[in-house]
Design a protein that fits this description.
43% of the residues lie in helices and 22% in strands. It is an alpha/beta fold. It has 2 domains: 41-122 and 237-280, Periplasmic binding protein-like II (D-Maltodextrin-Binding Protein, domain 2), CATH 3.40.190; 125-227, 3-Layer(aba) Sandwich (D-Maltodextrin-Binding Protein, domain 2). The protein has a 6-stranded mixed β-sheet with strand order 2-1-3-12-4-13, with helices on both faces. Strand 1, helix 2 and strand 2 (69-75) form a beta-alpha-beta unit. Helix 2 packs across helix 9 and helix 2 (50-66) packs antiparallel against helix 10. The longest helix has 39 residues, at 2-40. It is elongated and about 65 Å long. The termini are far apart. Residues 1-18 have low confidence and may be disordered.
Length: 282
Amino acid sequence: MKKFFALLLTGALALGAAGCGSKDEAADANKAEGAETKAEAVTLKIGASPTPHAEILNAAKEELAAKGINLEIIEFTDYVQPNLAVDGGDLDANYFQHLPYLDSFNEEHGTKLVSLGTVHYEPMGIYSTSVTDLADVPDGAKVGIPADGTNGGRALLLLEANGLIKLDPAAGISATKLDIKENPKNIEIIEMEAAQLPLSIGDLGLAVINGNYAMQNGLKTEDALAIEAADSVAATTYANIVAVREGDETRPELVTLMEVLNSQTVADYINNTYGGAVAPTF
């Protein structure tokens, strides 16, 4: 009888030990699985202008996190350092520029950056404090446009699209004042720094203002007398892109980044936040 109880006790202890071992092994396995999951999370460092680029990236953070991507956003207020940082490997990508600027930057700096895709564009608009309808623009009105070649041509195309001038068809997006072939209202084109146009609007009959500068100065697209159409040459040419190093276009985490930035979640955020001053390209 004693031998029977001894065997029974030994068996119980063995089962208890086995049970503890199973629990410990399960706990260890869970810990290992958790550690592996954490290890699989990828961090992407993205350079961006504060408005609207960094704001749009922040809107994409939650969806990216659900896909195992932690987004670290580094804000820049200049247009040189974000490209140099991507080229040097300090950033995985940046989001602040359009393709013509990137092409020009690559040529000037010898960098090899490419576009991963477009996210949004900021429509240029015609604004005025004295005119409420473009049909009523007075003869000889002063019209301010950006002084830089990129945005100056874009402004002239918008004026042409609204019947104020006619340009040489061969000029395209690179049009200058010299390409004006017809000017029925004899408007005077005044070239100014793009950032100064919203501040000088009271001294001008009309001002053709970039979307970002309009936003920064409290101008709304519904206040514009005209804005660029979503299918205009300017809108497609100057859409804002995500730029990466050449060869990184197929990195899975960057492909996922682009998919999320072109998602309905981001489109809804843009449409609900910026009142038309920023428009999704997808």
